[in-house]
Model the fold of this input.
Amino acid sequence: MKKLLLLLVVGLLVLPAFTFAQTKKDQAAVKEVEALERQRFEAQVKKDYAVLEKVFGDDLVYTHSDGHQDTKTSYIQSIRDGKSQYGKIDIEALNVRAYNDGNTAVVNGTIVITSPPKPDGSTSPSRLKYVVVQIKDVKKGWQVVLWQSQKQAQ
Done:
């Protein structure tokens, strides 16, 4: 009887680990999306419009830290026009969680965006916490469909 009770207790303690375990597809998605996040930040700095066109979904909602929103088209245009400028983007924290059998990912993290140098050589760093939602399109691959950020104290 004691052995049965002990097995039951151990089983109840271990069960949540199995219930919330990620599938192999979820685990693979986490690795893919983490790499894509780093690639996207690099593309924003380098103004690599081909990469940006590929990774942003057509229905993107990009909410900046000051509250204004862009679509895919208007955000990429803001980079072209110099309204959104990135000298450097450093990742302080990056957490990816995958869902829906590896077809949906929620990303949150902290980054420091440093503006390009001004004529006097000075730069302006901004520390942001952010949330991203990515979905995996059968034809297009991973697509960022939501970006939301908030400025943090330096």
Remarks:
- The chain is about 35% helix and 40% strand.
